[in-house]
Amino acid sequence: MGTDDKLLVRALRGETLSRPPFWLMRQAGRHLAEYRAVREQAGNFLDLCYAPDLATEVTLQPIRRYGMDAAILFADILLIPDALGQPLDYREGEGPILEPVRSPAELSRLQLDGLHDHLAPVYETVARLSRELPAEVTLIGFAGAPWTVATYMVEGGGSRDHAIVKQWALADPDSFAELIDLLVTATIGYLSRQVRAGAEVIQLFDTWAGALPELAFQRWCVEPVRRIVEVLRGEFPDLPIIGFPRGAGAGYLNFAGRTGVDAVGLDWTVPLEWAREKLQSQSAVQGNLDPRLLVVGGEAMEAEIRRILSTLGSGPFVFNLGHGIVTETPPENVARLAEIVRGWTS
Length: 346
Fold this sequence. Notes:
This protein is an alpha/beta fold.
């Protein structure tokens, strides 16, 4: 089966299908016992990301178990700062820990030289997946969008209010733009190499887009993604691209209209009827089951799955969650979701 015939690619190019394709963010992860076994074998999270044989295996695990229409490369959005030379560690129970970058002087320590040598194991994983995935399954490559990656780089890890990064961006936008520009360049190169290695679709994760006010959202979320999309489209004119500006609210309209993405991923707060009326007319939409409903399962989950399918299935649509699968999700609930979506007819 050629790329153009795959369900996900057809939906992203604007087709309304008899049943939507589906995949789930963070589908290869800690809710699977087989993932946890491989994770233990790897020793630590970063070693797993940089081991092509193990990263390939965990990417394939949910495809074998659930039969999704797409597999997303197993990697992490913070591999780019790691490759730029910012020390990164993952500590159990704490998440990512980075040596913060908070000034132009500290920014000068980051270097593009050697980026692709550092990330070569990721490209090898993409190439292996391109050979090993079932013919009907689409391979998704991805990166974090520059704003979201910058939040971790500046804060030194996760943050509840993003106070430090917002202070820099709002008080000294010219120097903060140097960090964003560096990330735009690195991200373009990273995604280009993924596509050349075999990725058929790209997703940009802007997980913390909702942290910014309107004008800052335009400058630090919309504009960098637009630049990335423009360059990738120049190199790969037919490449489908998904943008996920989580928490953007009404800003979804601006994002969809100005970035040039083929689809927008909806978080679970986006009203379905609004998405159908305002967004589906200009792009495909992807989403947006609350991951907690996937934990709950049963009739509550099934009713919401059917409501999402009924509301958004009459246009170009990809079924997904409104964010990633959480660790405590019962695999049998994911299997039931897959059964309902595969059996759906509009």
